[in-house]
Specification:
The complex is a heterodimer of chains A (328) and B (337). Chain A is mainly alpha-helical. Chain A has one domain: ABC transporter involved in vitamin B12 uptake, BtuC (Orthogonal Bundle), CATH 1.10.3470. Helix content of chain A is 73%, strand content 4%. In chain A, the strands form two sheets. In chain A, strands 1-4 form a two-stranded antiparallel ribbon. A two-stranded antiparallel sheet of chain A has the order 2-3. In chain A, a hairpin with a 2-residue loop joins strand 2 and strand 3. Chain A is globular and about 60 Å long. Chain B folds into two domains: 161 residues, Response regulator (Rossmann fold), CATH 3.40.50; 155 residues, Response regulator (Rossmann fold), CATH 3.40.50.2300. Chain B is built from eleven helices and twelve strands. In chain B, the strands form two sheets. Chain B has a six-stranded parallel sheet, with helices on both faces. The N terminus of chain B is likely disordered. The chains are: A mainly alpha (328), B alpha/beta (337). Chains A and B meet through helix 1, helix 3, helix 4, helix 12 and helix 13 of A and helix 1, strand 2 and helix 3 of B.
Chain lengths: 328, 337
């Protein structure tokens, strides 16, 4: 992930030390441990079918969490991302009826990116706090979605719009193109964040926007591009959602924004910006998915699943806080 | 920017381990007999939410019936009304756990059909409770209230109680497009003997079955139609909300209120004169018959099919001639929630 850590680790201390200081170690250990525990508790947990289920169940929130990671890296937060995706599904379903699948996809991406631009514009041009901006847009978008849908659900015809729900097999492992799409989104954003100047600037802006500005980074433009990218990601999530359930329902995914924040935070990205990344978020997404599936298989009430997830979030933020205090 | 002290990673790991362990152990103690006997019949139940009294009753009755037949019941639920994703995940996880039958109250009558189809393809029978799917044969069988009949009972009682007075009807609906809502609405009109869009209908509003929304809607409708004397409500919370508005306007003697559901609060409201009559549903019957059907399927391969009406019963303390009804003391013994 981080070239500095890699350089420092190689030059001064041994490779073991380098692994131990890896910020992803905590989340990774938690994931491995959860997998071990659940495979002992339930015979079916490690079955290929079940592992595939965990991935499929993670797709929509997992994709949204990539967008959320970008925003949180800039020290912001996006409360509207789930609502944008739900609006995207309604737009896609309605445009599919009017103009066919390609028009529907184009309309969805257009609407989601436009809403990203609204969020981004309010944050960068008017310098409003992202929490307030997205709280406002969340409320407005949710209402607009219901108006547009007329409080009805719309069925989407099988075809390109439900493509991401199509399943295929690799050996005995059966999975969907939605899972592939999710992994591709992670790979792409991981590359953009870690291997491009744009990614460096995102970290710099998130770490200290004034310092970034003074060192010549066009911070406003960079911040705005993050919100646009999040709009694109929300549109992909909307597409994936229709793959999973070919019905656009204005009431669906009410907790998706919070679930995406949960995955990001458990994955070790700092809520204060500038530190973390999408690899952690993928691990965070999987931890939540494994917990939900594993505890269900073990016969634990869903409310305990929420308690477990809640504790993990607090643990993750506590770890981040300690790390910050120590590094300051 | 990434160079963090070693202790950070270690403490992260330790804390996360502690959390995961705590809940892993809870998992062990939660399922006393996972594994062991392959012979045991496993029945899955998926409700819309786990907090609505109707679904609580459904779950309790299913549990009791499963215990009586020596079957294991695994109850899951969506997180909120409209949580299709949660219901799909629940179906998938139940199939993964090896249940032989799934009982489901579908959130959306068409949104979760793919998951139901996968489950049936995997050899699991799926039975819809309370709400039918669209198409109805997407599941093996449906055990539910005949909501049209329930609406007809409500309409007939309100009409008979109103007698010869010229009717001015207000309808407090649930959510547009819901099958249950449409059936009850149409049933009421049929029982009352008026057509959709008739001049007798002086007001109509959606309430989502929510008491607060119903009260606001009724307050506003009373401004427009102060002469209303016949009120249809989608459920008992809507009726309770409407009553508050009618009481506020001082019109309680003028308006005849009918409702549907049969919760204990609703029956209590009928007893206290808040609601004139309600039509009781029987969630316990849906659950019991559903569990029995799965058990029978496992034992001798008999598959349930079609729509089974679990019945409804008019509850009122002011009966009218020619309409079968029970009083509120019978209602209090048979209510749910």
């Amino acid at each position: 992930m981080s070239s500095e850590a890699v350089l420092q680790g190689r030059s001064s201390r041994g490779i073991i030390r380098q692994i131990l200081r890896e910020p992803l170690l905590g989340p990774l250990l938690a994931l491995v441990l959860a997998v071990i525990i659940f495979s002992l508790v339930s015979e079916t947990f490690l079955a290929p079918y079940n592992l595939s289920l965990i991935l499929q169940q993670s797709v929509v929130v997992g994709i949204l969490a990539v967008g959320q990671t970008l925003i949180i890296l800039t020290a912001g937060i996006d409360l509207s991302i789930g609502a944008v995706a739900v609006l995207g599904t309604i737009v896609m379903a309605q445009a599919a009826g009017a103009g066919g699948p390609l028009v529907a996809l184009a309309a969805t991406f257009l609407v989601c990116v436009a809403l990203g631009a609204v969020n981004g514009g309010l944050v960068t041009v008017l310098r409003l706090p992202p929490f307030i901006v997205t709280l406002g847009t969340f409320t407005a978008i949710q209402a607009a979605t219901r108006l547009l849908a007329g409080s009805q659900t719309y069925q989407v015809p099988q075809g390109p719009l439900t493509f991401l729900g199509t399943s295929f097999s690799i050996g005995r492992f059966n999975t969907t193109y939605g899972v592939v799409a999710m992994l591709l989104v992670y790979l792409f954003v991981w590359y953009a964040l870690s291997q491009t100047a744009w990614g460096r600037h995102v970290y710099a802006v998130g770490g200290n926007i004034n310092a970034a500005r003074m060192s010549g980074i066009k911070s406003g433009r960079n911040l705005f591009s993050v919100y646009l990218a999040t709009g694109v990601i929300a549109a992909i999530a909307a597409w994936a959602a229709l793959g999973r359930i070919p019905n656009a329902d204005p009431n669906a995914y009410q907790n998706a924004n919070l679930e995406s924040i949960t995955a990001v935070v458990i994955g070790g990205t700092s809520l204060f910006g500038g530190r973390g990344g999408v690899v952690g978020t993928l691990i965070g997404t999987l931890i939540v998915g494994v917990l939900r599936n594993g505890l269900t298989l073990a016969g634990v009430d869903s409310l305990y699943q929420n308690i477990a997830t809640g504790i993990l979030v607090i643990v993750a933020v506590a770890v981040d806080q300690f790390a910050r205090r120590r590094s300051l | 920017m990434f160079a963090q002290p070693t202790k950070r990673a270690l403490s992260a790991g330790a804390l996360a381990l502690a959390g995961a362990l705590a809940f892993g152990v809870a998992g062990c103690s939660g399922s006393s007999d996972s594994g062991g006997s392959d012979e045991q019949i496993k029945v899955g139940l998926v409700t819309k939410t786990d907090s609505n009294p109707f679904f609580v009753k459904l779950r309790e009755a299913a549990q009791a019936q499963a215990d009586a037949s020596g079957a294991e019941l695994i109850s899951l639920a969506g997180a909120f009304d409209g949580d299709n994703e949660g219901q799909v995940a629940a179906i998938e996880n139940l199939v993964s756990q090896g249940v032989q039958g799934i009982l489901i109250t579908p959130n959306s009558s068409s949104g979760i059909l793919n998951a139901i189809k996968s489950a049936r393809d995997a050899g699991v029978i799926v039975i819809a409770l309370d709400t039918a799917t669209e198409p109805e044969d997407a599941v093996d069988a449906t055990f539910a209230t005949d909501n049209l009949a329930a609406g007809v009972s409500q309409g007939e009682w309100v009409k008979a109680t109103l007698g010869d007075t010229a009717p001015q009807i207000v309808m407090l609906d649930g959510t547009p497009g819901g099958t249950v809502d449409t059936f009850r609405h149409d049933g009421f009109l049929q029982g009352f003997g008026v057509e959709e869009g008739a001049a007798e209908i002086v007001g109509q509003e959606n309430t989502n079955g929510d008491q607060t929304k119903a009260q606001t809607a009724m307050e506003n409708l009373l401004q427009r139609a102060p002469g209303v004397n016949a009120l249809y409500t989608i459920n008992e919370p809507a009726a309770a909300g409407a009553y508050e508005a009618i009481k506020g306007a001082g019109l309680t003697d003028q308006v005849v209120i009918g409702s549907v559901d049969g919760s204990c609060t609703g029956v209590e409201n009928v007893k206290n004169g808040v609601i004139g009559a309600t039509v009781m549903q029987f969630p316990a019957k849906m659950a019991e018959q559903g569990v029995d059907a799965v058990v029978k399927y496992v034992q001798d391969g008999t598959k349930p099919s079609g729509f089974t009406d679990t019945g409804s019963q008019l509850i009122t303390d002011t009966p009218v001639d020619g309409l079968d009804s029970k009083d509120t003391s019978w209602g209090a013994e048979n209510c749910w929630g």
